[in-house]
Amino acid sequence: MSLAQKSEHQHGRISFANSNSSESNPPDYEAVDVLGPRGPQDGGLSVLSIDMCVADNRKDHYTDKYKNSSLIVRRNKEFTIIIKLNRAFSAEQDNVQLEFMIGNSPNVNKGTYITVSIGKEKRDGRWNGRVIGTQDTEVTMGITPDASCIIGRFRTFVAVVTDLGKQRTQRNPDTDLYVLFNPWDPADQVYMDKEEDIQEYVMNDVGNIYDGDFNNITSFSWNFGQFEEGVLDACLMIMDAGKVPLMYRGNATQVVRQASALLNSQDDKGVMVGNWSGDYSGGTAPTAWTGSPEILLKYINEGYEPVRFAQCWVFAGVMNTFMRGLGIPTRAITTFRSAVDNTGNLKTDIVLDEDGKLDRSRTKDSVWNFHCWNEVYMKRPDLPDNFSGWQVIDCTPQETSDGLYRCGPTSVNAIKEGELSYPFDAKFVFAEINSDLIYYKADKYGKLKIISVNTVYVGKLILTKKKDSSEYEDITSNYKYPEGSLKERETMQMAVRRGVTSMDNLTLPEAGVDIELQADTIKIGDNFKLTLNIKNQTSQTCTISVVITGCAAFYTGITSTTFMFENLSATVEASKSDSKEFYKNSLEYMPYLVEQSNLLFMVYGRVEESDTSLCTMKVVNLQPPELTMKVNMTGSPRVGKELMVSVEFLNPYNFTLKKVQLRIDGPGLTQTKLKQYSQILPGASVIYKVLLIPQSLGKKVLMACLDCPLLRQVTNQLEFEVVQDENINEQSVILGTR
Questions:
Q1: pLDDT over 70, % of the chain
Q2: Is 200 annotated in some ligand binding site?
Q3: For bias kind Polar residues, which ranges apply (predicted)?
Q4: Signed CA dihedral, 586, 590, 595, 599: sign only
Q5: What is the SS3 assignment for 484?
Q6: Residue 483 assigned as binding residue
């Protein structure tokens, strides 16, 4: 039973037009005149079989990677069908129609009922058709779906038309036809002109997502798995469940906008439940997932019950799968120091109390260490030509757009130029990367005063995976001009004219003193050193009083428990620098760590001579312990041959890790495997061995993730080449691990 049939069997028919969960099929025979005789009248032409030429067509349409037995083709590209008749076909005497139908109310005017005629009454339709050749009783047809046709699963019928009526073939799921977007074709909305771009942004089924902090970039692999069994059907059924009109599904702009709402469950029963609370009981922690197929199939197979839980990189990973599976070029983006500015005034407010400590109760805004969204590549017919290309799309639920939690698509070029009046949600995205950080200090009566403004903290670095590499590509310049440049100031002025609320002009006295907090790379559980650098750029000696607050923090910048509060005073001579060091024991912070193990340090300083204030923040992302992976064989892995991989983890801490999950994942290698350990004692190690059978040639990535409440997202990956010939290259199989 297919996923579509299973869904229909479990949940019954639904009333809206859709492509997978419901269908309405025409009768085998339709009479021209209801008073006339019924059924075939002259024992003439009839259809014996339909050959969809699946293997050849799929290879020609770049869809042979999909683990699906049906024909899958792309828009505006011809595919062939062989129709076997009971006698030879006569173009002068016979009239044959191919019918392609989608949804439960097929209609010619809506593009959900397509006819292609051959023979004596050839008619023009939305799809082109031609007779390629005939041999004995077989007719080879060439069919070309139009460049803007609906995306989805069509049912195929062949009808013989006579003066009395129409005799068509019976419903046969084996002749179903999936039509996808076509990035290879210039007439398609999602066309890309470089083959290497298509291979990376459509065909690559595994990738890297970047996280950590601006000064300490880390990454992990993600299984997009768009070609895995059931995933394509799942993507179409999600649109069905979300009641996306079929008429929208030929328009890439509408498809991605609808998807950005469908993949979160904030205001409907969408695919994933966002959760940033730290409590993931009743679900899977966002840090434990390794890929999209497990999530998408879980959603479908469990009756459209939203999958628990997700955070921004999970939303971005699943969006990548959804879009690439339908043929839309897509890539995952990470923005470091991303502001959440729901008011659109380009201000992110940080409040310090009377003592100079971070006031957690009054600081409502935050700057995320990193935030993941997606870019999709397409022509925007609704915008000026220069705003086509990469478009931001974000399904992490942060704010509503037209009544639903979604964001985009919004042109990256428009964001860079400050042209924010075009659809969709450009103002919000612009603020995420351009907001100013405003520091306030409360007096003893609670009155707030602005003490410092940082205009360059937010939107510091924007990355995506480099083509054909596991390294990152810096695309910050796609979004913004260099800070402080003339073009950057012009962009801000344009953004204000286009509706972004301008900050009041703030004239704060120059302190003439700079402060910076530095920390080396720190592993979870390590003692560490902080260094405060003070640089006096004035022509007089300055006395500076400093308060440093240290908190455990989520990657969203929301702080948890305060574990450090330090006061110091320093006297720095004119045009000189000074440094102060602080040594912290792991026992001071370990009891308070939250997921992903971030420490946020807030520094407030006051220059006594000028009575001016200094503020800065520093995020330290603690590194997790290692997860070891290795292949237990010599020589190269081969298609269809067993391959043993072992994954090992040693608990380096003096506390027990409980409720541990270990996931193994890799497209073309294995479906997601989950191993659970009730506990791993201090100093103990676990070894999990998994038997794989590679299904296809080429470079493969096997990824592993160990996750538990006290230790999140311990990851690693193996990359190796799978070969066909046993005699090829008996060298080390491992190309790289991370």
A1: 92
A2: no
A3: 16-25
A4: negative
A5: coil
A6: yes
Looking at residue 343, what is its pLDDT?
A: 63
Catalytic (active site) residue 371: yes
Confidence (pLDDT) at 729: 45
- Catalytic choice (61, 211, 235, 312): 312
| Dist CA 480 CA 487 (whole Å) | 9
| pLDDT the model gives residue 42 | 44
Query: Phi and psi at residue 487, in whole multiples of 5°?
Result: -65, -35
Q: Could you tell me the CA-to-CA distances from 315 to 104, 372, 377, 454 in Å, in that order?
A: 31, 8, 18, 30
- Where the chain has pLDDT below 50, the residues are 1-17, 34-42, 727-738
Q: Which two tokens stand for residue 384?
A: 């000026």
DSSP for 160-193, written as a single string? EE-SSEEEEPPP-GGG-EEEE--TT-TTSTT--S
Fold topology of 3-180: Immunoglobulin-like (2.60.40)
**Is 125 within 8 Å of 116 (Cβ atoms)?**
yes
Among 476, 517, 535, 526, residue whose Cα is nearest residue 619: 517
Residue 241's identity, in one-letter code, is: A
Could you please state the CATH topology (level 3) that the domain comprising 195-337+369-419+461-481 is classified under.
Answer: Coagulation Factor XIII; Chain A, domain 2 (3.90.260)
From residue 522, alpha-carbon distances to 585, 619, 621, 625, 638 in Å are: 12, 12, 8, 11, 40
Q: Is 394 known to be catalytic?
A: yes
Q: Determine the 3-state secondary structure of 540 from DSSP.
A: coil
Q: What is the DSSP letter of 264?
A: B
Tell me if 473 is assigned to a ligand binding site.
no
Question: How far is CA 72 from each of CA 182, 224, 227, 355, 377, rounded to the nearest angstrom?
Answer: 11, 19, 12, 66, 21
Sheet holding 79-85, edge to edge: 47-51, 79-85, 138-144, 128-135
pLDDT per position as a tens digit, 177-234: 999 999 999 999 999 999 999 999 999 999 999 999 888 899 999 999 999 999 999 9
Q: How far apart are CA 468 and CA 463, in angstroms?
A: 15
Return the CATH number of the domain spanning residue range 627-737: 2.60.40.10
The per-residue pLDDT for range 531-585, each reduced to its tens digit, is 999 999 999 999 999 999 999 999 998 888 899 999 999 999 999 999 999 999 9
Q: State residue 25's pLDDT score.
A: 85
Q: Is 436 annotated as a binding residue?
A: yes
Structure tokens at 245: 């009109």
**8 A C-beta contact, residue 207 and residue 329:** no
- Closest Cα partner for 211 from 85, 353, 311, 361? 311
CATH architecture, domain 513-621: Sandwich (2.60)
Spans of all domains in the chain: 3-180, 195-337+369-419+461-481, 513-621, 627-737
- The catalytically annotated residue of 188, 353, 365, 371 is 371
pLDDT at residue 405, as a whole number: 81
- pTM above 0.90? yes
DSSP-derived secondary structure letter, 434: H
In this structure, are residues 150 and 107 in contact, taking their beta carbons and an 8 Å threshold? Answer: no
